[in-house]
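note to self: the first set is below, dont mix up w the second
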Amino acid sequence: LLAAADVTGQLSLWSLPDLEQTATWPGDGAPLLCGALSPGGQYLATSCRSGTARLWKLANRTGRELPFVVPTFTRGFAFSPDGNRLVSVGDDAVIRVWDVPSATPQRVLRPHHGRLWSAGISPDETTLAVACADGSIEFRNFSKMTMQKVRIHESPPGWAATAVDSSGGRV
């Protein structure tokens, strides 16, 4: 499954590998900043330039939305490998951990002093990597939900994205 959006914010779903468009809906009517599909393609998390972040339930392919109330631009999402939790990060320097089925926050952490660009969760759900606008990447213990800072890797400003490979061996 592939999700895409155009400049008006219209969302589209495409099947893979044949690239057949299977659904479209209007979205929030503003260009998207980021998006993420849950493992198995049950949910789509989106953030748009209007400041709205949403969790869309895709089971019925009509784009029924579940509201995410986020008071700032959300720049990155990461679903847990089991699809039950979602991490959102953004301009307010806050890490939010959401329960996906209920679309309710489990944790709200204010660990950083600047924008957060993206997040990645390891396949074994033990590590959360967060790319920060100041050039650091923070590694946190995600499995225990303690969110203790494990290590910070410093680099020149410019980290814009993090990703964890499917084996969990690389960030």
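second set (the one i keep forgetting abt)
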Amino acid sequence: TYGASNPTSAEEGATVTFVVTPATGYNVTVTTDGPQLTRNGNEYSFEMPGKDVTINVTAEEILTEVTINVNPAGKGMVYVDDLPFTPGGKITVGVETSHTITATPVVGYGVAAWGWDSDKLTVTGNETITLKGKGNSDPATLTANFIPLYAFIQGRFHVTNAERNNQWTNT
């Protein structure tokens, strides 16, 4: 957040101080059209010259570079914004810049889970997810994990005899 300093006028030679606090996930650049700024955290100051001063503040979203992987390799595809995506490739996300990512298994496999750097990324959804950054510029990883479909039932259930209408029973 930023706005006009208070007061909005100053005598020549006076020190003018103002605060600029970026929104989460953003960096700011602060400049003036004349006097040199001194910065201490989010506080900026300058010595008032004998003319008006314009303060310029530019906010830039912090982007996170994300490598997208598939595990195990060859057992599924990943689509980013409905387009096929090569595993090991990179995209960028931010607090407002997001992508829709879909995991599609090959025949005989299912989506087991997504894995991601939870301190850097926000993930919502299951097989199709929305991926956003958390305002961290460090690289991150997202992995689509696939599992053979027989693993979902192997060792957990068995088929009883036909007289029981082929019911699945918990073992």
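remember for set 2: Confidence is low (pLDDT under 50) at residues 157-171.
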